[in-house]
């Protein structure tokens, strides 16, 4: 489950920050374009709208909030009421607080799933699609869509990244094997704004 | 001394000794090759015997395992895995520890021994991803059976959770959790426990699972002060397999060599492997340093290269024959016992000194080579024979000591001393005959100021004796301040990793400074769990009375049947309806079909059923909390064992009183703790010391009686020992050194070692004209002085070892030998002169 979590964190960051090239892409080119675009970014913030259609709920959950990222290993997400919560990931340490008074929960991801490790991997040029992974990349006039199907054993069934060619509007859709679907839409994305440690606190 | 009935026996013993020494003198003179061939044969046989001995490094095998507290301690090490697991203690800046732990864990996980992974598991985090599903299963079980885990005191809160309003609040909270989690990661727990009952259950499970005092807010096994992080690793093979363990330790050392923080490795057996090399080098340096000093002393005084070079040969023969003989009745010898070689170097050289000194003195006086050797072997040899026996027998008497460390050391030193004497008596004369020639000039040996000492002692014998008496009184008063150190860890190498790790755990991670473990043994799980109720009740009462800091048992994390029954009765009164909860789920927008498993359990009456304790234990065993079960409930080939741990501060709990209370409440219970083990050891050591002193003392007395047949001779031998022993205790008190399980035995061995000095002096000076007496005194006193110096060199090397056990023996013996030799050199001439004056 946490492998999926950390993978999603990385994708969240990547998709929120990438400018888009309007041309047809092969799977390797698509992944490489994502990596290259990320390499010039030190931090970013974006407003977030998240829609969840969970198998255990009949109604769709819609949340608003904000995400922040700072290299090499900081990620923060805050959702506003009625579903207020905060999530902070410092490399491998994941902390979450529900509401404003909720108990702080902490868990530690395995080191291979830490943010710094992911980004160290992403620093290397993509020359091949990772084994067991399927990648499709499509492009139309204004946006690029990259769909990734990770290895079959994982909980994540499919992930679709929608990138607008101006590099400011983005969308992430993830479908899990239990039938759960989450769509995240980012707006007001700002890169390299000089975020500090103070921007990554749960208090 | 007139001892009717004894005199004939003593005369006979003396005659036999003289005849025996005469035979040695003759055989070394007439058949030197036969002597050498026979010795070589004995050495070969000893080597063969030596190869049958297993050499131990396990520190726990030094102590008697048949005592109740020690037995349970050893059992608990096996049960807890403590004997097999490796513990890594990372200390440094709190911010750096997690990253370093992560790197170390990776390296340990990838570590290979003989082409296969070295560890089964490496853990340092509270939550491991691989345990997620098992944890979710436990949550699902506990949510369906809250009576199994919710503390009785929280029953009102539990009942409140099932009111319609609380159910709606819980479902709102659940919705918020699902919204706040990334993707669908919160779905699993939601299905397992939609009403969030885990908030009433998990704190109890978490508290009960704390074997160490760790930071509850940290996701790591981190001390509260954040300075120490503990990592537990389980090797794939038992680390008692030494070949595997050595390779494992080599890998561990490599894995931690690149770390930015200090990493100590502990674990009952793996520490022994890690410290083995240090232990060996420590003992080797002891042996070599004492040998160098001893040979240096001998050469500095006598200036003869061949006799000096013969000493290592004599000692080697003595040591090999001692080991070979010990191999006939010992299956194994602990590596620490090899320190005996250093002692043999110190004690065994004495015979070469006495023998050579007499030979040299007689040659200076004009005797031929054969005459000088015969006088040395037969006359001085008589004194040496008695002295050897008085030294060896108290050591051998320790062979019956209940503490293996002492019995092995006693046997090896006792045998080594005897064989060193015989090696000296057989080899030194052969060498002397070989290297000597009639025209060789022998210059007088240095008097070392001993003639003046003789004259001073003779001039003021009474003031000297009175002054000594006052000094004894003073030291006796000081010795009353001597205290006993019962801490076993202080006997370990003070700079070893095991010692350091133990200190770290005590300083940073122990729940309380002291602890006790109570075990109940039985044939079935149900039986030991039932019996343990009485132990838990006793522990709960002690905690309520403030006599315990904390305690833990399986009953701390799960409800026993009686508590379950009370909760179930209350839940029955609450009339919880699964249909009502289903309706609430539906109203809050949930798909009720997804919660069918949970709802079906409720419909089947899970909330109001009292579970068999074995069912709850099985569920815990299948969960990430199996370690808590393993810690408190053990099943091995001897049956089931329920364990309860009690933690307290010094002075908070009267341990003896608790043991009595426990025996009244549960007569079959066993209990252990470091203090109880220390008490057992102390009792064993005390018995050994009393028996050793009595047995060794009587034997020494008989030998002295046989030798001197006079009270003055016995007083001359034992008087300095009494002075030396009292002065040793007084000095120890003065410098803040304590008696312990090991050095207390010096009180036994000093009788034999120390009585030699007075014996030799009395043997040589008691008779003859005043001038002759002085010359004899100078010769004997020089030997005594040099013997004392070589003994101090042998034991002195122990004094500087890292081993608390050995070091304490070294210092105590050096104090004792130093004062005894001083007393002998001053008091024996004084008493001899006083006796002459009276005559």
TrEMBL record, chain A:
Record-linked SUPFAM superfamilies: Prokaryotic lipoproteins and lipoprotein localization factors
One Pfam family this sequence matches: LolA
Domain of life: Bacteria
Record key words, sorted: Lipoprotein, Signal
Signal peptide: 1-22
Membrane-spanning residues: none
PANTHER family for this protein: OUTER-MEMBRANE LIPOPROTEIN CARRIER PROTEIN
Protein name: Outer membrane lipoprotein carrier protein
Species the sequence originates in: Trichlorobacter thiogenes
TrEMBL record, chain B:
Source organism: Trichlorobacter thiogenes
Entry's localization field: Cell membrane
Aminoacyl-tRNA synthetase found in the keyword field: no
Name under which the protein is recorded: SSD domain-containing protein
Key words, A-Z: Cell membrane, Membrane, Transmembrane, Transmembrane helix
One Pfam family from the record: MMPL
Transmembrane regions: 34-55, 282-302, 309-329, 335-353, 373-397, 409-432, 464-484, 688-705, 717-735, 780-800, 812-836
Segments forming domain SSD: 308-434
Any single Gene Ontology cellular-component annotation: plasma membrane
InterPro entries xrefs: MMPL_dom, Mycobact_MmpL, SSD
Domain of life: Bacteria
Family matches, as SUPFAM superfamilies: Multidrug efflux transporter AcrB transmembrane domain
Protein's UniProt keywords contain S-adenosyl-L-methionine: no
Bilayer disposition of the protein: Multi-pass membrane protein
């Amino acid at each position: 489950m946490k492998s999926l979590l950390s993978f999603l964190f990385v994708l969240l960051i990547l998709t929120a920050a990438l400018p888009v090239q309007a041309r047809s892409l092969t799977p390797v080119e698509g992944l490489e374009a994502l990596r290259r675009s990320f390499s010039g970014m030190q931090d970013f913030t974006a407003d977030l709208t998240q829609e969840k259609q969970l198998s255990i709920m009949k109604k769709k959950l819609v949340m608003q909030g904000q995400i922040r990222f700072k290299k090499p290993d900081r990620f923060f997400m805050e959702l506003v009421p009625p579903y207020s919560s905060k999530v902070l990931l410092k490399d491998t340490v994941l902390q979450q607080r529900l509401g404003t008074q909720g108990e702080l929960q902490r868990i530690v991801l395995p080191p291979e799933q830490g943010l710094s490790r992911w980004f160290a991997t992403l620093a290397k040029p993509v020359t091949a699609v990772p084994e067991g992974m399927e990648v499709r990349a499509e492009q139309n006039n204004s946006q690029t869509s990259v769909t990734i199907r990770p290895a079959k054993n994982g909980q994540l069934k499919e992930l679709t990244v929608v990138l607008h060619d101006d590099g400011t509007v983005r969308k992430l859709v993830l479908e899990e094997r239990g039938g759960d679907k989450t769509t995240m839409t980012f707006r007001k994305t700002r890169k390299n704004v000089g975020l500090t440690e103070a921007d990554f606190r749960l208090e | 001394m007139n001892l009717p009935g004894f005199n004939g026996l003593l005369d006979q013993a003396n005659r036999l000794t003289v005849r025996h020494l005469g035979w040695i003198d003759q055989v070394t003179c007439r058949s030197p090759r036969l002597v050498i061939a026979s010795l070589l044969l004995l050495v070969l046989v000893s080597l063969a015997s030596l190869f049958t001995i297993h050499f131990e490094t396990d520190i726990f095998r030094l102590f008697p395992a048949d005592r109740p507290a020690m037995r349970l301690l050893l059992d608990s090490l096996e049960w807890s895995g403590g004997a097999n697991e490796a513990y890594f203690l990372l200390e440094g800046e709190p911010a750096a520890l997690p990253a370093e732990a992560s790197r170390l864990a990776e390296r340990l996980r990838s570590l290979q021994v003989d082409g296969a992974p070295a560890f089964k598991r490496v853990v340092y985090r509270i939550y491991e991803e691989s345990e997620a599903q098992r944890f979710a299963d436990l949550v699902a079980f506990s949510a369906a059976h809250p009576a199994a885990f919710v503390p009785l005191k929280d029953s009102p809160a539990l009942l409140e959770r099932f009111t319609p309003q609380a159910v709606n609040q819980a479902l709102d909270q659940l919705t918020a959790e699902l919204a706040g989690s990334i993707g669908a990661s919160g779905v699993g727990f939601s299905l397992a426990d939609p009403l969030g009952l885990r908030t009433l259950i998990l704190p109890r499970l978490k508290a009960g699972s704390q074997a160490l005092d760790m930071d509850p807010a940290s996701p790591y096994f981190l001390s509260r002060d954040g300075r120490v992080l503990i990592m537990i690793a389980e090797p794939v093979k038992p680390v008692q397999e030494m070949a595997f363990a050595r390779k494992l330790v080599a890998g561990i050392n490599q894995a931690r060599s690149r770390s930015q923080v200090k990493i100590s490795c502990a674990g009952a057996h793996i520490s022994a492997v890690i410290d083995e090399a240090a232990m060996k080098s420590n003992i080797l340096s002891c042996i070599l340093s004492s040998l160098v000093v001893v040979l240096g002393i001998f050469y500095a005084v006598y200036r003869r290269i061949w006799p000096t070079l013969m000493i290592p040969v004599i000692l080697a023969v003595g040591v090999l024959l001692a080991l070979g003989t010990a191999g006939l009745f010992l299956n194994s010898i602990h590596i620490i016992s090899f320190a005996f070689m250093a002692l043999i170097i110190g004690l065994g050289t004495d015979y070469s000194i006495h023998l050579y000194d007499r030979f040299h003195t007689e040659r200076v006086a004009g005797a031929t080579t054969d005459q000088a050797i015969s006088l040395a072997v037969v006359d001085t040899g008589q004194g040496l024979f008695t002295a050897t026996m008085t030294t060896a027998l108290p050591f051998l008497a320790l062979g019956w000591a209940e503490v293996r460390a002492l019995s092995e050391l006693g046997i090896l030193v006792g045998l080594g001393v005897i064989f060193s004497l015989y090696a000296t008596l057989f080899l030194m004369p052969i060498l002397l005959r070989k290297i000597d020639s009639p025209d060789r000039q022998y210059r007088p040996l240095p008097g070392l100021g001993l003639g003046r000492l003789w004259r001073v002692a003779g001039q003021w014998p009474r003031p000297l004796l009175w002054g000594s008496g006052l000094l004894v009184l003073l030291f006796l008063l000081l010795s009353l301040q001597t205290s006993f150190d019962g801490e076993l860890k202080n006997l370990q190498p003070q700079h070893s990793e095991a010692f350091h790790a133990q200190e770290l755990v005590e300083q940073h991670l122990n729940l309380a400074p002291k602890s006790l473990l109570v075990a109940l043994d039985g044939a079935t799980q149900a039986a030991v769990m039932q019996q343990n109720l009485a132990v838990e009740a006793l522990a709960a009462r002690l905690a309520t009375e403030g006599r315990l800091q904390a305690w833990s048992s399986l009953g701390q994390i799960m409800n026993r049947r009686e508590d379950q029954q009370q909760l179930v009765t209350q839940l029955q009164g609450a009339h919880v309806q699964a249909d009502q909860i289903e309706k609430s789920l539906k109203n809050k927008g949930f798909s009720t079909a997804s919660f069918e498993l949970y709802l079906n359990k409720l419909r089947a009456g899970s909330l109001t059923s009292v579970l068999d304790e074995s069912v709850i234990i099985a569920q815990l065993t299948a969960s990430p909390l199996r370690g808590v079960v393993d810690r408190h409930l053990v099943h091995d080939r001897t049956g089931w064992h329920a364990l309860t741990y009690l933690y307290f501060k010094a002075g908070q709990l009267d341990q003896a009183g608790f043991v009595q209370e426990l025996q009244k409440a549960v007569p079959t219970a066993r209990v252990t703790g470091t203090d109880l083990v220390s008490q057992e050891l102390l009792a064993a050591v005390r018995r050994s010391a009393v028996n050793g002193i009595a047995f060794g003392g009587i034997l020494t007395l008989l030998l002295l009686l046989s030798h001197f047949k006079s009270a003055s001779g016995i007083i001359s031998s034992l008087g300095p020992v009494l002075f030396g022993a009292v002065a040793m205790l007084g000095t120890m008190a003065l410098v803040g050194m304590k008696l312990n399980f090991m050095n207390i035995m010096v009180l036994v061995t000093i009788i034999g070692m120390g009585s030699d000095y007075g014996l030799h002096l009395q043997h040589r000076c008691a008779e003859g004209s005043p001038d002759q007496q002085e010359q004899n005194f100078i010769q004997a006193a020089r030997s005594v002085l040099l013997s004392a110096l070589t003994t101090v060199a042998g034991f002195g090397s122990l004094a500087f070892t890292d081993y608390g056990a050995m070091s304490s023996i070294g210092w105590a013996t050096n104090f004792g030998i130093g004062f005894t030799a001083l007393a002998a050199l001053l008091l024996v001439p004084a008493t001899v002169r006083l006796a002459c004056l009276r005559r």
